[in-house]
Amino acid sequence: MSSDNPSLPATPLPRVGQQTAWRDFLSFTRQRGGFQLGLAIVALSLGLAVFGPHIGPYPTETALPGMPLQPPSWRHWMGTDVSNMDIFSRVIAAPRIDLTIALVSTAIAFAGGVALGVISGFFGGGRGVPKLLSEGIMRAADIIQAFPVFIFALALVGFRGPGTENVIAALAFLNIPYFLRITRGAVLQVRERPFVEAQRCAGNSEWRIAFVHVMPNALTPPLANISPTIGFSILLTSGLSFVGAGVPVPTPEWGSMIAIGAPNMMTGQWWTALFPGLVLGIVILGYALVGDGLKEFLDPVNKR
Amino acid sequence: MKYASRRLALLPVQLLLVSLIVFVLVRQMPGDPTFLYTGPFATTERVAEVRKQLGLDEPTYVQYVRYLERIAYGDFGLSMRTSQPVVADLRQRLPATMELILYAVVFSVLIGVPLGVYTAIRSKGALNRGVFVYGMTSGALPDFWFALVAIFIFFYKLHWLPGPIGRIDLLISKPQNISGLYTVDALLTGNWPALASASGQLVLPVATLVFIYMSLVLKNTRSAMEDMLRSEFVTYARAAGLPRLMQWRYALRNAMPPIITVTGILTWFLLGGAVLVETVFAWGGLGQYAVQSVVNSDYAALQAVVLFSAVFTMVIFLLVDLAYFLIDPRIK
Q1: Is the CB of residue B286 less than 8 Å from the CB of residue B305?
Q2: Closest CA relative to residue A154, chosen from B273, B263, B90
Q3: Which residues in chain B touch residue A166, judged by CB atoms under 8 angstroms apart?
Q4: Which one of B136, B271, B299 has the shortest CB-CB distance to A285?
Q5: Could you tell me how many helices (H) and strands (E) chain A has, helices first?
Q6: How far apart are CA A88 and CA B122, in angstroms?
């Protein structure tokens, strides 16, 4: 991206540019403790999503023999819950489902939001059918965003029935307007740049210019927002599961574990809900930190 | 006035579109609702008859118009769970949610705005760093979990506050119904035991909502204030030798529109956030009603809550726009 700047002398080889970008990224990372922490948390969460269900010391969906609600000890690092399942094993198994939902729904929302954002941004203010399309997309996004997020998610899952696919569908649907707006904002700027006019002179069709030439140059803002959206999706998933409208019960999932532990919090068994929520909070914080760092790295002019 | 009336004229259009979304949403329901009434073993003739009674044999757009007619008359059907008209259920539960949101908004603004202004003026120091850490963590913590931890500490361990048993102690009679807000009604009727109990019950849920959602107000106040302090008119005021306090006052006056907007957004957020917190505290408001309707597949109730929440949102943003109109003389 740095070689786009016309006022700089042309960089001799693109490969050198890539290496410079990578070196920039490393030195940027080295200076920022928060970003490093975020990256570590994200890497760990992804690792647990792959290996988590297999590396815990106890089974994740079956009750153990013996007394339930054991406090944390060397045998059970985070204690056991009301049906005597090992909380630690379940907490590290939970990223499997939580991250699958968050990653898949964010990917769908990104693809849909960017495509619609390019259309609405590139053809906005134009004439004819594309203009109507652009207007229609924006009004639809307005209306979807008129509903409070959690209530709308609850309703989508409520009418379609609980289950992983429906949670993914609901979250993807809710996040599309978000990516749409960010992309649209970027496209509105990119479409004014001279190279767009040049492509038009070269005889490219409008749709081709929009998706082949403008879109790649408008991807930075939506890309930087992937990470916080993943965090937000994990939070929503856990909220839905907490009230019984998300991932069904024996599956290890942070929100549903907090729900299982909720009654015990009022009778003093604090470990049942504390640990799943703590890990959930740390993971969401990690994705937020990575998002903040990436935004600053990709857009150093507007940094705070 | 033209601005305000044009803004008001937008409302019916929005309402229509929102009702269309909800109508489509309800049609996402798996299965045929006819069988809810006939049972699974009904004859074909009986199914056709019920289908006709329900109006399901008509084309979709006719069904939509029928549906609009019904909601225009305030007929949202019966809740399958409470066997009451949904409207009666909503009316019963609305004040509970409003009381929660009202106090959460008031305290978020009372704490968040001064803190935001202060951290914008003094951009260094321990308080600033504390606010930064708070802003990062509060957005990451699930509100329902925070509520549970607060209950464990302040109810179970310290015995400072009452447990999550709803809006008022079971042994204390509810105050006479005037506004529906227990604290207000108790105050108006001089019912001190009820006032004490209702206030005590409010502390933890309100504190939870304020802790989780206040950072929105804080961050936006700070950045609006920072922008204004860097602006040309404040630079000019500084160059003209106006006292510090005066410069800050000018800056704050001009930072008001974004602060009002974020207060609107906060209220909108809280309506959603209240759903989970109400569930934890057995609050008996709209949020808990929404959750119970989802869990029990009570579609009529769910549909009404969703529609209400969208209307509520529109009213909030309408008020925000009208407040702009009042405080910003340029919009006329």
Answers
A1: yes
A2: B273
A3: none
A4: B136
A5: 14, 0
A6: 43
Taking one residue from A and the other from B, the number of pairs with CB-CB distance under 8 angstroms is 147
Q: What is the pLDDT of residue A284?
A: 93
| CA–CA separation, A222 and A115 (whole Å) | 11
Structure tokens at B75: 């007929």
Q: Which positions of chain A have pLDDT values less than 70?
A: 1-18, 300-304
Confidence band of B2 (pLDDT split at 50, 70, 90): low
More confident residue, A116 or B169: A116
Half-sphere exposure of A144 (CA within 13 A, CB side): 19
Token pair for residue B12?
A: 């019916």
Q: Write down the pLDDT at residue A120.
A: 86
**Amino acid A303: pLDDT:** 44
Produce one character per residue of B58-79: b if its CB has 16 or more CB atoms within 10 Å, e if not: eeeeebbeebeeebeeeebebb
Which residues, in sequence order, are bridge partners of residue B85? Answer: B78
Q: Encoding tokens for residue B208?
A: 């939870």
Is residue B238 within 8 A of residue B247, CB to CB? The reply is yes
Interchain CB distance below 8 Å, A154 and B290: yes
Between helix B286-295 and helix A149-160 the angle, nearest 10°, is 20
Listed by number, the residues of chain B in 275-304 with a beta carbon closer than 8 Å to a beta carbon of chain A are 275-276, 279-280, 290-291, 293-295, 297, 299, 302-303
pTM of the shown model: 0.86
Nearest-Cα distance to chain B for A303, in Å, is 12
B140/A231 touch (CB, cutoff 8 Å), yes or no: yes
Q: b/e string for B223-259 if b means 16 or more Cβ within 10 A?
A: bbbbebbeeeebeebeeeeeeeeebbebbbebbbebb
Residues paired with B78 in a beta bridge: B85
The pLDDT tens digits of the residues spanning A121-146 come to 888 777 777 788 888 888 888 888 88
Under 8 Å between Cβ of A283 and B137: no
pLDDT tens by residue, B43-56: 777 777 777 776 77
**Cα separation, B224 vs B247, whole angstroms:** 14
- Per-residue pLDDT tens over the stretch B248-286: 888 888 888 888 888 988 998 898 888 899 989 988 888
Beta bridge partner(s), residue B128: none
Contact B156 A265 (CB under 8 A): yes
Question: What is the pLDDT, as a whole number, of residue A300?
Answer: 60
pLDDT of B179 higher than 90: no
- Top pLDDT among B178 and A286 is at A286
Measure CB to CB from residue B273 to each of A150, A231, A282 and give the nearest one. Answer: A150
Reported as a single tens digit per residue, the pLDDT across B270-280 is 988 888 999 89
Of B145, B306, B309, the CB nearest to A277: B145
Torsion of CA A238, A243, A244, A250, to 10 degrees: 60
